[in-house]
Amino acid sequence: ECLEAGMDEYVSKPIKAEALRAAIDRVLRAVPPGPQTEESNEIGDAILELVEDRRLLAELASMFLAVQGGWMEELRRAVQRNDAGALEQAAHRFKGSVGNFEGAGLAARLCSELENCGREGRTSEAPALLSKFEIALASLCRSLEKLAREAE
Description:
6 helices
């Protein structure tokens, strides 16, 4: 969809430095040589430094850990109320954030399933998925807490 909408490249979450570097290189090769290319290279290098910066990743992890509890409550309330719209929105928010972290595939997949349940009005399936998601999220949070501690 993104490429069809006119984007030059797309890198899916979790963003891996090699994939980002390859996408930036492809875009830069398509740009005519000149001063703009040098600036683009500097921007590309800065983005790669951010992706590879463990302190930044730890900061993102800390930010996620700070908000995920409230998001989880929203998700639980949506499931308890059988509110398909709220379920879709809460699961979508989680999916986008969880997708930032490599190794969170199960949690991201479960978020996607919860989001689809909400979108399609299949709220009766949500409690079982929510239980699985809570387990996957707890595992992810333990890993993120360790990452945040190691970066201090």
